[in-house]
């Protein structure tokens, strides 16, 4: 275990309130506990963009708004309790374009951790993907945690 603070990596986790992002949080906490790393979970709330001349709110690139009753701090506390992990986790909230904000924050991180869903290739083409853009443009390594792989590192995960 890495117990020296000067050797600790900064793991940045992108969260959006989905089960996939909670799997990414689980992975990062387990990794941090094993290696003595620091974890920051960043939730980016997208700005609603309106279709000009109408009252329809659009979520760019097919993003789904975060659940109104979702608390990032509560989710992190719940996951840490499930994992019995005593890792200090910092939570941050920003508003803007999720891809841009994650890439900006990743400039200061050693590793970017994102959950990935099972969208079809057509769905990714039509709606875009934050994780795909982050993989292509990140200045640090990126870990994508899939729902199929979550059981490999955490028996308590869904």
Structural description of this entry:
It is a single chain. By secondary structure, this protein is of the alpha/beta class. It has helices at residues 19-35, 72-83, 98-106, 121-127, 130-137; strands at 10-15, 38-45, 49-50, 57-58, 89-95, 111-116, 142-146. The strands form two sheets. Strands 5-2-1-6-7 form a five-stranded parallel sheet, with helices on both faces. It has a two-stranded antiparallel sheet with strand order 3-4. The longest helix has 17 residues, at 19-35. It is globular and about 35 Å long. The model is unreliable at 59-64 (pLDDT under 50).
List the helices and strands and how they pair.
Elements: E1 10-15, H1 19-35, E2 38-45, E3 49-50, E4 57-58, H2 72-83, E5 89-95, H3 98-106, E6 111-116, H4 121-127, H5 130-137, E7 142-146
Parallel strand pairs: 1-2, 1-6, 2-5, 6-7
Antiparallel strand pairs: 3-4
């Amino acid at each position: 275990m890495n117990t020296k603070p000067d050797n600790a990596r900064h793991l940045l986790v992108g969260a959006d309130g989905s089960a996939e992002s909670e799997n990414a949080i689980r992975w990062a906490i387990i990794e941090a506990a094993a290696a003595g790393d620091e974890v920051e979970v960043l939730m980016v709330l997208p700005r609603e963009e309106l279709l000009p001349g109408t009252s329809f709110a659009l979520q760019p690139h097919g993003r789904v708004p975060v659940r109104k009753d979702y608390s990032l701090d509560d989710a992190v506390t719940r996951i840490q309790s499930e994992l019995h992990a005593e890792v200090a986790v910092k939570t941050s909230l920003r508003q803007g374009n999720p891809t841009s904000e994650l890439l900006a924050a990743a400039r200061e991180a050693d590793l970017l951790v994102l959950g990935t869903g099972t969208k079809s290739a057509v769905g990714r083409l039509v709606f875009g993907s934050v994780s795909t853009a982050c993989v292509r443009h990140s200045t640090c390594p990126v870990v994508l945690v899939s729902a199929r792989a979550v059981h490999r590192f955490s028996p308590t995960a869904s």
